[in-house]
Amino acid sequence: MDLLKTLLTTIVINSILVMLPVSAETYQAGEYTITLEMDAQQGRTYRGCDHRRNCLYLTHGTAWREQGYRGFSWENKSYTYSISWQEGTTQPMYLKVFNPQGRLILNRVMSEQ
After folding, report:
1. Fewer Cβ within 10 Å of end Cβ, the chain: N or C?
2. What's the Rg (C-alpha) of the chain?
3. Structural domain of 86
4. Looking at residue 84, what is its pLDDT?
5. pLDDT along the chain (113 residues), means of 10
């Protein structure tokens, strides 16, 4: 039953996101500049750039919601990039990166630019 609830929640969130206007949101997350967008063809996109302008562009982010938290995740070469926040609070968003074994290797607070 929990799996069904999670799947239905994901479908609803993705349906709402498709209706959102295309706009870019840019954040600072430690030494990284993160730009999030919604694109009609590529879905929720993520561009992360370091101070040397080395950038990673990911498409088709997956929306999720779990235990009072929500966010978006992207996969790249078995690494997971996740943006998350706690619902109903003024707590900041976080950028988290997990290695292929699921270990957290990066955890940065995001602030709007």
Report:
1. N
2. 14
3. 24-112
4. 95
5. 52 47 83 94 95 96 94 97 94 96 97 88
Residue 12 counted as domain residue: no
C-alpha to C-alpha distance for 97 and 105, rounded to whole angstroms: 6
CA atoms within 13 A on the CB side of 48: 20
Burial of 34 (0-12, 13-18, 19+ CB in 10 A): buried
pLDDT score of 4: 52
Residue among 37, 44, 52, 39 nearest 75 (CA): 44
Chain centroid to Cα 27, Å, comes to: 12
User: At 92, is the secondary structure helix, strand, or coil?
Assistant: coil
What pTM value is reported for the model? 0.76
Is 19 within a domain? no
